[in-house]
Amino acid sequence: MKPHYKPIPSESKLFKVEFQKTSQEFYYPWHYHAELELTFILSGQGVRYVGNSIENFHGEELVLLGSNLPHVWTEQDEPVTAIVIYLKEDFFDKNWMHSIEFESIRNLSVLMNKGIKVDPEVASALKLKFYELLNASPFEKLMILLQVLEYLSHNHKSRFLCGQEFTFDLDDTDKTRINCVYDYIQKNYQRQVSLADIASRLNMSEEYFSRYFSKTMKKPFFEFLNEYKINRACKLLIETDKQISEICYASGFESIPFFYRQFKKFKDCQPKAYRINFQKVLMYQPV
């Protein structure tokens, strides 16, 4: 995934609302932008990368992203449809947004620097508001948007995607290096990956690469690698009827007990429970 700066052109100096319904509209390579972003996934599924977080996503999901937080959604099997809101820098102009009336929204904007996965019940409650944004007048859009942000600012069930702020302030050399690591993991996760393998590709010693990756990505390399493998396992649990032992090996793990421990660490449940819970979600499709 090549890192890009994505410009967000808009007639409004405050915000932009987009209904993205094709692959060309939805997909943009690993990128960042100055605008804060609210993305409501309406349908489709895939893998979401935000900062140093890797997770599967599916419909009825709402994610909040801070300024310059790198991200990409990669869709699978079918096009993803989404309503995306971009909040421009002028939206938080100190002449009005720093007033006491907007204190909770201002605090929310700071928390978004870590990336936020909104609680499903909260996302469901806001779904109609997002649809209303598509056809409202410019003034009505502003009013609806403020209502959405105020509602989100008082929601305490959501969770952070990144352990700490992960803004894209890397120089071109770092971007190229991290891009190389991503590409290597995607192509080689099913075999045994060593520090020596990846460090040699970056012309680093194993020790230096280990320190470099932890400092840059805010987590150790093998934690990042295992998280990627677990998300591949989740995809197989959802999309196939394969035995869990088969999925373990297909995801690049060599030990079933270790696979179970890593799955519990990243998903807070066991693989069988994850599959059952997802099947329950598919059976319940809210209007």
UniProtKB/TrEMBL annotation:
Keyword line: DNA-binding, Transcription, Transcription regulation
HTH araC/xylS-type domain residues: 179-277
GO molecular function, one term: DNA-binding transcription factor activity
InterPro entries: Homeodomain-like_sf, HTH-like, HTH_AraC, RmlC-like_jellyroll
Origin superkingdom: Bacteria
Pfam families, per database record: HTH_18
The UniProt record lists the keyword Cell membrane: no
Family matches, as SMART domains: HTH_ARAC
Keyword Transcription regulation: yes
Protein name per Swiss-Prot or TrEMBL: AraC-type DNA-binding protein
Lineage of origin: Bacteria, Pseudomonadati, Bacteroidota, Chitinophagia, Chitinophagales
